[in-house]
Amino acid sequence: MKTNLLSKYQSPASDGQTQLITPNKANWKYVYFETKEIKKNQTISIKSDANEVCLVVLSGKCNISTGELNLTEIGDRMSPFDRVKPWAVYINQNDFIELKALSSLEIAICRAPGGGDYPARIISPDEIGSEKRGKGNNQRLVHNILPETEAANSLLVVEVFTDEGNTSSYPSHKHDVDNYPHETYLEETYYHRFSPNQGFAFQRVYTEDGSIDESMAVYDKDVVMVPKGYHPVATVAGYNNYYLNVMAGPVRKWCFTWEDDHNWINGESYN
């Protein structure tokens, strides 16, 4: 079945918007994802309504205020490829974020259904865990911005750095069955960046029954939507890859199933 899982980058609109993934566009229920490129001194306002929001400062500096917070000079990197941890802000439902760009600014606005007693908070680089995963040509660096160990109602947010020529989100795994604790249903978006920025990678999204089997050449600032199935990424020589992942579903746990054919790569026989 032919699907439409790739959202191409669009030049910034008047409010800076370059990507907007809604449940209606993705044909799913939980994940909203948006990116904006904001000019220096430009201000924007974001309302959460019935959702919770995790705003990630991908690059640049800004001031941010919410109903409870007032933050100045947020942002330590001018590109994701500086490979320092980002700043982020979490708000729950019925709150707002006011933002002023102090430089050229790139942000990601991650949304999913809100709820629970989770107050607004700043997520500083010191609070973000870092880990290396994989081995051989399957290595990557992970920053856990909003993992399941931190308070939220629905959202899981992580960023991943994969060096040229390596694979990531691999061996192939899936999280499309609501069967906790064995597997959880999580919708997912991938926001891709490349260095140098004319680079690309390949991402495949496919299911065991063949109802989805789509392979995409993904370029800078494109978004891949993963409603179900396996979803590995393969970089090409000369171009380092960054992606921001947003996941959400009915159970806020990342429980997944490896594809049997490729699970051996996790074993001792692979270097």
Describe the 3D structure:
The protein is mostly beta strands. The chain has a single domain, classed as Jelly Rolls (Sandwich). 1% of the residues lie in helices and 46% in strands. The chain has one helix at 23-26, and strands at 6-7, 17-21, 32-38, 43-47, 51-59, 62-66, 70-74, 87-91, 96-101, 105-113, 121-123, 129-133, 140-146, 156-162, 167-168, 173-174, 187-195, 200-206, 213-219, 223-226, 233-235, 240-248, 257-258. The strands form five sheets. The protein has a seven-stranded antiparallel beta sheet, with no helix packed on it. Strand 12 and strand 13 (140-146) form a beta hairpin. The relative contact order is 0.19. The mean pLDDT is 96.
Briefly summarize what is shown.
The protein is an all-beta fold.
Question: Topology, please?
Answer:
Elements: E1 6-7, E2 17-21, H1 23-26, E3 32-38, E4 43-47, E5 51-59, E6 62-66, E7 70-74, E8 87-91, E9 96-101, E10 105-113, E11 121-123, E12 129-133, E13 140-146, E14 156-162, E15 167-168, E16 173-174, E17 187-195, E18 200-206, E19 213-219, E20 223-226, E21 233-235, E22 240-248, E23 257-258
Antiparallel strand pairs: 1-20, 2-3, 3-10, 4-9, 5-8, 5-10, 6-7, 6-9, 8-11, 12-13, 13-14, 14-22, 15-21, 16-23, 17-20, 17-22, 18-19, 18-21
